[in-house]
Amino acid sequence: MLDINRIIELLPEINQAFLETMIMVGISLSVGLIVGLPFGILLYVTDKGLFLENRFVKVASGIIINLVRSVPFLILIVFLMPVTGMIVGTTIGPLAASVALSVAAIPFYARIVEASVREIDKGVIEAAVAVGASPWLIIKEIILPEAKPGLISGLTITAISLIGYSAMAGTVGGGGIGDFAIRYGYFRYEDTIMFATVIILIVLVQAIQYFGDFIAKSVDKR
After folding, report:
1. SS3 state of residue 90
2. Alpha-carbon distances of 105 from 71, 77, 158, rounded to whole Å
3. How far apart, in Å, do the first and last CA atoms of the chain sit?
4. Residue 130's domain spans which residues?
């Protein structure tokens, strides 16, 4: 039976856990966007037949991204603990978890960016190259505007994935909704708390998905 009084009693802790989750997702999503976006574009423009074709850069970048993506997230957190300790001074809490989340977000979003820009008509890019447009101008005026809806949709997918990762981070002291659910819902067998955290995560994911879809449709001029 759902115990509303218990939920009200723990509301301050639920709010704190929610805030920690938003901190983790916000930091890692920002890093994923700032680093993953240029990384994904680099993967595309260095491909065969493109204006910055470079086989070595293409292969090396692809290997790095695939290596990071192949490591399960919980193992990645543990593996990065020494680095996390050096960066933030601790290996527990939302800021510490944000390090591993950021590392996971970069290759994840980079691959989405690469897939999005591949949908651009190569004829448009070839025409720009033919008239002497610089690589930066092509990226700025053609690739980014044309791929904008896909980039925003990809960012939405990345954000939702990071929410799931942040819940896993809670199992190793990362804080957030995942940590709260484990401490109360699992270890103390409080089904009400587990149910409440699941509802919070569902609402959060649905809100992000709706907002992301709305923005993507708004910028899509096709």
Report:
1. coil
2. 13, 13, 7
3. 50
4. 11-219
- The whole-model pTM stands at 0.90
Backbone dihedral angles phi then psi of residue 131, each to the nearest 5 degrees: -90, 5
If 0-12 CB within 10 Å is exposed, 13-18 middle and 19+ buried, where does residue 36 land?
A: buried
Question: pLDDT tens across 147-205, in order?
Answer: 999 999 999 999 999 998 988 887 777 788 888 887 777 777 777 888 888 888 899 99
Domain presence at residue 2? no
Distances (CA, A) of 104 to 71, 100, 136, 168: 9, 6, 27, 13
Is 6 within the bounds of a domain? no
Assigned domain for 70 exists: yes
Summarised one tens digit per residue, pLDDT across range 85-137 is 999 988 888 899 999 999 999 999 999 999 999 988 888 888 888 888 888 99
CATH number where 192 lies = 1.10.3720.10
**Dihedral (CA of 213, 215, 218, 221) sign:** negative
38, 117 Cβ separation under 8 angstroms: no
Task: Decide if 3 is inside a domain.
Answer: no
**Tokens at 158, concatenated:** 């990345």
Examine the pLDDT at 2 and tell me if it is beyond 70.
no
Count up the domains in the chain and report the number. 1
